[in-house]
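note to self: dont lose this again. the chain is below, predicted strucutre after it. 430 aa total, dont forget to put it in the shared folder this time
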Amino acid sequence: MKKIISLGLFAVVALLFAACTPTVDDVFDDSSANRAAKSQSTTREVLTSQTGGWIMHYYGNLTYGGQNIWCKFDNTNVTVGSEAYGPDSTFTSHFKLEQSSGTVLSFDEYNPVFHYYSDPSNSDYGTLGKGFNGDLEFRVLSATKDSVILQGKKHGDRIVMVPAQSSWSDYYKQIQAVADSMESYNNYAVVVDNDTLNASLNYNVITVTDKATGEDTDMPFTLTPSGYELYKPVTFRGKTITGFTYSTDGKWLNPADKSVALMPIIPPINQQFVLGAWGVSLSGLSAFGQAYWNDSKTNYQDKYGEETRYAILGTYEFSANYGKNFGLSFASFDGSASWWGTLAMDYKLIGNDEVELTYNAANNVLNGNYYVKYYGYANIVYPFAWTTARRFKITTDDPKHPTYLILTDENEPKNVIKVTARIKAWPYRN
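---
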């Protein structure tokens, strides 16, 4: 009660004080409405001033890194091109500037080239209902002839636009040339003061693992004609990293500190297999494996109304709580939710292109043992590994950037398995 009374007395005193206080002039020279109108007018003038358009470094879920979107504004419409649609497809739609705690740029009319990144049903990224997780409305943080800085109104990502220095078609070809040169590998190393650390590239994100701590550091980036430009500077081992500049010598330096470099490496194909995550599908199995998989589906999965949604062979992390595990990871869908697990394996590398795989049920993760017991998943794992080791010879289409691996069982030649770098949902349908 005392606190309520004290606050009430304070309010009365404040009101009396306010009544006796002389009127203070507004610190602004103009009304809020006029200031808002002026801000919108200035922003529109900046947007339309670049007759060649702007290159937008666009981000949604940072897991996927950034994408280049070309935007050319006139007074009411914007013409858009994007990496997803290539150099020759553009689309024009309406945009607007409005007031909402500052100036907001809104792509308010459907534009397939732009809305691709905000479409929640986009199956190229993420899960159904999220997609790339991009925004359509952006707060304008600053707008000058040199750059426009935006912030996604819903997801909060920082978006930078810079003037286009060439046509969209030419710019697209430049960044694709960089992509072809820098992304034609599966494995990389980040070199810091001559210390070499393992790194990987997934979507437009570099992930480097600090061997001293085991911790991963993600570096989302956007392609530019000169290399990779990070979403924001990253501090790693006391170094500031802003990106990596392409050069033909295969040592791509960090512009902010040239003691840091990104380098492509080509490990033996069996190492690439055990370190990677590879998609498995029914069609990728020979008749030997298909017989076991179909038995699991017919006698167990169909009976209980579930279907394998993902099957992933190799090293995979489906949850930070369970870390990275080697084996056959899966998700089973019951009509409303997916249930994850890993059927664990031990591996032994032999030479550069052979591997032995042994099923190790004691190390199964999360729902692994449950699905072996009740859903016939022993048949799912059997073509890959069992309590007696299976020894495979591994071949591929491209050792430096495999799109697939073929595993041939040396003790059971009829057991041939093709796994793919691209992981697709619903392996029984592919």
